[in-house]
Every structure is written in structure tokens, then in C-alpha cells.
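agent> Task received from the user: take the single chain below, predict its 3D structure, and emit C-alpha cells. No templates, no multimer pairing.
agent> Plan: (1) validate residues, (2) run structure prediction, (3) serialize to C-alpha cells, (4) report one or two observations.
agent> Step 1 OK, no nonstandard residues flagged.
tool_call: predict_structure(input=
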Amino acid sequence: MFLMFIKRYVNGKHTSIYKSKFWITSVQVILLLVYIVYHFATPVLAYYDDGEIKFHVYTKMKERFDDNITFSKNDKKVDVIITSSLGIDINYESKKQSFTVNSIINQNVFLNNTTLTNTSQQAELSYLCYLSRYSTLILRDIYTHAHSPLTLEADFGKDIGRYSYQQNSFYFNYIKDVNKHLSLDGMYENNYYYTGKHGSNNSLTHNIGLGLDYMINSATTLKLRYMFEVADFSIDGTSLTYTITAGLRRFITKQVYIDMAIGGSTVKPVYGKTTTNANMSVAVTDEISKTETVSLIYNKTTLPSVFSPDIFDSWKVTIKINKNLTDKAGINVAVFYGGGVFTKDATKDHQIGSNIKINYALTRNITGFIGYTYKAICSNNDSREYIRNFVELGVKLVF
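)
tool_result: status=success, residues=399
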């Protein structure tokens, strides 16, 4: 019933709900319900599970100067955006299970182009449970409602421009340890994408997968994966994708490891003939501590996405650095570079972006931050090209 309900929205029915204040109201109700559950669940969890639960409410205020709020090459507009936010963080951890809830609602006020003033929300729920000594359950759900890309690569292979969109991703994974070397897992994931942009596809995708991990020794684990995906697009139809990959994880030191995978995908697209193409990924990660990481990731795929039924033959490189500079100061750096071509209309894009953010703890509960972001898209389709810079300054208060 739930999937049928969602599909009615994907196919364009009952869309008036997205033009109302439904999502603002729903987030406020969720915040209230979460607090009530927290209030009553804390003593129960402490009694039965001997775990620790932490609850924080926080608010943020920031000012952003953006030199291209329209994401356009020929119709650039400059503006200052004031964002006020209210969020919650809930964390619970015990020997048997853990869960986290992170939710935030933002009011984005455009000082010059007031018609673009909007409200956005993000929410993430995750749950980890050790069902037994040999079985683990992982659940995760991520919801986003926004009017612009939230990360450097969020609009890679996507329609360009400023428009409202909503996306929800649900993930389920069950892991079974057969013995000390071999583990099996089964997963299910669905991704719901809705946009109010005229002429763009809404979509609902389902992924089912099976995996096998074989640990040769403490430093090396071999991995085998099979995935089947059904993607239903509101305008164009349905595509099917079958993917198999083989890879490994190799620890170079206790905190540095490399993940490699290579495989192939057979795609029965909405348009054209069935094709089979190779995919590859390489990632190097340095987990310095729980809050400090450095990673370098390369991906090469030839697949449709949740944004478009057209096959996007692409590659991308991502660098991320999260580092503590001092006891009070930290830095986050991200760099993205990628390119790809849509096979149907031969649109070819190259995208580059970088972001740097510095945080400084002014007091125990107040943190100030400043950031700068640069993004550029070059394309053989002139309407997709733009360059954007923005600087933001803000403060976060945790209660």
C-alpha cells in the first residue's frame, strides 16, 4: 500500500500537497513526537538495555553571499541569503544496538529576490542491532527537501537550475556471519525522487542485492556483490539494471585502507537497446579518529540514475578531509571533479567544485563557522553551463 501511495505521487497525482505548507507542519510534528518518545523511552531503554541516550536541540544562523543564485551562465543574479535553522540530534548506544536521529528545518530568506525565499528540511534516521553473535541488522532512512544542490556533486548528471525537489532513500541490510572468515548479506534499498520542475521525471527505484565477504586475514577481505534495480520514471517508463562486482578491502596500516571493485552492468534502458558496460571504483581512506578522516574516491559507471532514465556514462573523483586543527578549531575540505555524457542526446558535461569550511568553538555550546564554495560546469549544451561562488558565515548554538 505504501509503495502504491508513493507511486501515485511519482506519476504526478495529488501534487498539490507539495505546494502547501504540509512539509513544514510535518517536520514540526515530528520534532514534537521525537521529544515525547525521548522523554518516555529514556528510562525504559536504560532499564532493559543498559545503554546511554543523548538528546540535543540546536539552532543555527548564517549569512551567505551568492554570486549566481539562478545557476545560469547568461542570467546570473547576486543575492544575500539569511538562513535560520532549528534541529535535533538524538544518539543512543548500548552493547546490543544503537540508533541516531538527526533532523533540521531551515528558513532561507533572500534579501533581494524575495520570491525565492523558501523552507528546506533534512532528516536522517539510522539503526544498528546485533540480533545475535552472528547476525546484524542495519536500517537507514534519509529525507531531503531543498531548492538547490546541498553538496558539490548533488547536481552531477542532473537537470541544472533552481527548483524544489524532494528525495527519500531507505536502506535495509542483514548480515550473517557463517564463520570467522565468511559472511553473507542481503540488502534492499528504495529511492524516491520528486521535483516540481516542469518536464522533469519523478522516479521510484528499487534495489535488491546479495553479497559475500571472505576475510583472508586481518588485513584483506574479498567482496562479491550482485544487484538488481528497477527504476520507474513518471514520464518515460521503466528501466532494469543487473550489476555484479568483485573487489577487496586491504588495510595498509591500522587506520589506512583501500577499497577496490570492478564489475559489469547490463542495462535494459527506457530508450535504445540493452547494453553491458564495465564499472570500477577505487577508494583510499585514512580514519585518523572518530571525527577525523581523509579520503580519495574514484568511480567510473555507465548507468541511469534516479534523476534521468538516460544512461549517463561518467567518471568522478572526490577528495574529502575532516581534520581537527586545535582543540577548538576544525576544518572540512571537499574537492570534486567529474565528467560524463548522456547517451541519448550526447550531452557532455565536465564539473569541478571545491569547498572549505572552518569551525571554531567559541564556548562549550556555541560554535562559529566560515566557508567558501566554488563550482563550475562546462557542457556542449550552453544552457547547462554556469560558474558559482558563495561565502557563508554563521554560528551554531547547542542547548
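agent> Step 4: summary for the user.
Residues 2-398 form a domain with the Porin fold (CATH 2.40.160).
agent> Done.
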